[in-house]
Amino acid sequence: MRVGKAGYIEVPSEIGEKLYGWDYHKWIFKLSDSGKLMIKKKTKNSQFGQLFHYLYKNDKDYAKFHTKHHEIFLVQFEWLEKINYEIIESDDDLIDLNDINEIKRLLAKRSYSGISNLIRRVMPSSIRNFTKKSIVKSYGRDRKTLKDIKHIIVCPICKNQVQWQDDLILCTACDRKYPIRNGIPFLLK
User: Fold this and answer.
1) DSSP character for 165?
2) What angle do CA 129, 66, 131 make, to 5 degrees?
3) What confidence score (pLDDT) does residue 62 get?
4) Residue 86: in which H helix or E strand, if any?
5) How far is residue 174's CA from residue 137's CA, in Å, rounded to a whole number?
6) pLDDT mean over 74-98
7) For all residues of the chain together, what is the average pLDDT?
8) Mean predicted confidence (pLDDT) in 40-64
9) pLDDT at 142
10) Domain that holds residue 178
11) What's residue 143's pLDDT?
12) DSSP string spanning 128-161?
């Protein structure tokens, strides 16, 4: 059940999920050329374990590659009024990595305006990042943390206040328990 009229969804793509793999992710996502969110049940975990997590954290060249080509690792989807999606009941991959045209389409999604490209080429990333953070802070839209949202979270079933514990969220009104895994609350039915 959604509570907003618009939103933004960012999840690992099929490629990101296969390389990095998070055992608590249950679905694979792809954004179709028509703008529809394609969703498929995840059937297996990453065969690479923590390898790519480690590379991202410890190898600056790999991290740079990942950042430069983030569109192959992430699905970024904005929606208004309703989420346009389709659940796929197939064992086939959502992305055919043997199809060169599919690969070209995937990589073509990187489209920055001319000024963005110019800034990316001439300004060091440390200055770009500092500038972005300064702008965000100056508008008071600094990223919210879990402790900032605790007071607005309610039980998704009965809409009553919840109690936060170290590893779970408890609704005393309907006696439901929601786990917190790796600092992420799972408020699912």
Assistant:
1) -
2) 5
3) 92
4) strand 85-88
5) 39
6) 85
7) 80
8) 89
9) 44
10) 146-185
11) 47
12) HHHHHHHHHHHTT-PPP-HHHHTTT-B-TTT--B
In the three-class reduction of DSSP (H, G, I as helix; E, B as strand; rest coil), residue 82 is classed as strand
- Judge whether 121 lies within some domain: no
**Cβ–Cβ under 8 Å, residues 39 and 87:** yes
* Residue that wins the pLDDT comparison between 4 and 74: 74
Nearest-angstrom CA–CA distance, 39 and 77: 12
Which amino acid is it at 178?
Y
User: What single DSSP character describes residue 166?
Assistant: S
For residues 10 and 101, state if they share a domain. Answer: yes
pLDDT given at position 151: 81
H or E segment and range at residue 90: none
Structural domains in the chain (count)? 2
List Cβ<8 Å contacts ≥24 apart for 23-28: 24/181, 24/182, 24/184, 24/186, 28/94
- What is the longest distance spanned by two Cα atoms in the chain? 57
Model pTM greater than 0.90?
no
| Strand spans (E) along 1-61 | 6-12, 27-31, 37-41
Residue at 139 is within a domain: no
